[in-house]
Amino acid sequence: MNTTIVKQLILKDWHFLRGPIIGYLAGGAVALLLICTGSEGGFFAGLVLLITVLIAVGIHLAMTTVVGERKEQTLPFVMSLPISYMEYTTAKILANLLIFLIPWSAILLAALALFTIGNAGGIIPFMVLVVTYLFTAYTLLLAVAIVSESQSWAIGAMVFGNLFLQAFFYGITHDPGIASKMKGHVAVWSPTAVTILVVEIVLILLLLGGTFFFQARKKDFI
Amino acid sequence: MSALAVQFEGVGKTYPHFTLDDINLELPTGSIMGFIGANGAGKSTTLRILMGLVHQDRGAVHVLGCEMPAQQAVAKRDIGFVSEDMRLYGAATLAWHMDFIRSIFPSWDQAYAETLLKRFDLKAEQKLKKVSHGQRVKAALLLALARRPRLLVLDEPTTGLDPVARHEVLHALMEALTDERRTILFSSQNTLDVEQISDQITFIDRGRIIDSADKETFLERWRRLRLDVPPAVTLPSLPGVVETTSSGRLAVVTMNGYEPSMAEVYHAAGVTVQAVDSMTLEEIFVVNVHNRRERSVA
What we know:
The structure holds two protein chains of two kinds. Chain A is mostly helical. Helix content of chain A is 82%, strand content 0%. Chain A has helices at 3-35, 40-71, 75-79, 85-117, 124-148, 151-173, 176-179, 191-216. The two termini of chain A are 21 Å apart. By secondary structure, chain B is of the alpha/beta class. In chain B, helix 4 packs antiparallel against helix 5 and helix 5 packs parallel to helix 6 (163-176). The termini of chain B are far apart. Chain B has helices at 43-51, 72-75, 94-104, 110-119, 133-145, 163-176, 191-197, 215-221, 260-268, 281-297; strands at 4-15, 18-28, 32-36, 58-63, 66-68, 79-83, 151-155, 183-188, 200-205, 208-214, 222-228, 241-247, 250-256, 272-278. Chain B is built from ten helices and 14 strands.
């Protein structure tokens, strides 16, 4: 593995995305402030904004760094560098995950801190499950974008992830083990919540592994 | 160092509507090969296989001593690649691209890059989305040349360039060859460009190499003879005749492998040779392709 060039490719993607990422961080901060107002309206408005910000970050990243590379015909330039396609795939996945995890973890950590300080720890499992779902949906979008390099397939993955989000919301807000503890002061991780979290993490790992699996079998790269 | 910079042995690639078949190609170190073919002939596919960007279904490819595509990352350290469909990042300046390439290639020659910057009339601080197609091609060429590659692979670099930009690009390529270790493989539909800078010529059509030789041999081998054929005389059949057209007594014969003794054969048969004309590379290419396509139909 040529780590120097992988690093340069990650820095390259960061160079083009650092401006928008700062914007998304600002959006995430506004969402958290709304959530912390204490009112029900503020909570839902903040939650919708938070979800929107994380979905937008994921779409922006995958469409710009992966689909855009083919669409804008910069892929031949990148692939003319001394790099194998697996190194390119590694660089793309690392760049995307690292850049996505900046706003994702900042928002998650800020939410955890605010809920803990605000004595609203009961909402933490719900919040963790939702943001981890968004991470899973983003990983699906990224995997599909890298393997298919197609805007249409990427949009399909995005639609699937967002549609399933509604079902996911319905499911966790109607689960007694999660819903009944949401207004409590302390985080309570029910067996269902833990199972959902484990499934999300396993799905993320499977999607990343699957991306390498399919990429290794490709024969045409540009 | 290997005497061959590029070697294709029985290389093939099959797509649903196109097959690249049995490509055998040898490019000696230090030579410039012009790779000529019509649209869809298989030039880009061949060059992408050379770069490891497309994997061949059959056959072996060696580039700078590396087996492709397995060792593409090693081989590409010494290859500069520019293709007509390659774009640089529009949101970044050429200066950013130069820094980016310099961070990857220890062989980057900053002084040469600055010389090319002036020669190509490029502005390093200008964002590339604001420049013309010609400027973009020259920027890509600068990035490829200034890393001082041992092999330059150029896929139709002059397509869409105005005459001045084309001249500048060709001039830079000729200058790049002052280093005798540098090898260039240059695909184009423009035979004039290829004729100017190449010492080896390869024709490709419908996924197959139809002819390959050094330029002088090509130009020496092909002749067009204008003949006066009296009514009672039958034109003798000679080897290498690719095309014959007649109008009354006048016959025009296009030959691959012309030798002066052939004129004597015609003369002995009662045919008067009015002229033996040299052919341009474009004429040779067109006749070659036309002849092969007619034979494949027959």
